[in-house]
Predict the structure of Ubiquinone biosynthesis O-methyltransferase.
Amino acid sequence: MSDNPLVAPSIDPAEVAYFERLAHRWWDTEGPFWPLHRLNAFRVPYISHHLCTILGQDPGANQPLVGLRVLDIGCGGGILSESMARLGATVTGIDVTEKNLRVARLHACQSGLAIDYRLASVEQLAAEEMMYDAVLNLEVIEHVEHLQDFLATCAYLARPGGVMIVASINRTLSAWMMAILGAEYVLRWLPRGTHRYRKLVRPTEVIAGLGPDYRLIHRTGVRVNPFTRGFAQTRWEGVNYMLVMQRRLDS
């Protein structure tokens, strides 16, 4: 039975229940979340580079994100949140699954990191008029309901001039074959049912959903080497992609 007290239009109860069952495995680097650990190691330098470039941080500093308020949407067990905190950011991680947050809080405590983990939805933060220098929206949008409303709400969470980074899986035949059939059913890199094709999101839908107040700064595809399980950038966005968007100062 779920211990989640949140009710918000973007929350899919089936997705919440799915991640509750796996919550205890978040920090097992060889378990069901190993792809997120590998992705995180690949994406953190990408994220840090663009945040420094856009927001005027010193990329050569030991902690280049000092002074930035960063929101990690759908933080899960805290893999990305901890990486941002180690780079000096003041991090808020939100999730709609209490079990995930218990894992995240315990691991952060053991790691000596101060991270504000909250059982909250994006709708709740928007209602509280919370704003951040950077909003990280990674591997989340393919798990929500009412996508366009969700993105429109997320758009309010980055301050004017702030950055939104979105990463997801494209809704293409190639993505179905590689990310669902291949990764979940053939290679079994992910538990079956992790992704549903109808909920995958095209980059154009993300850009449209964030609206005219955002401009695209950078975009890239992401590929995985099935032999080394390593990730790299690619021009092809047919499966995985990342978008770096900046909110206009006059919005």
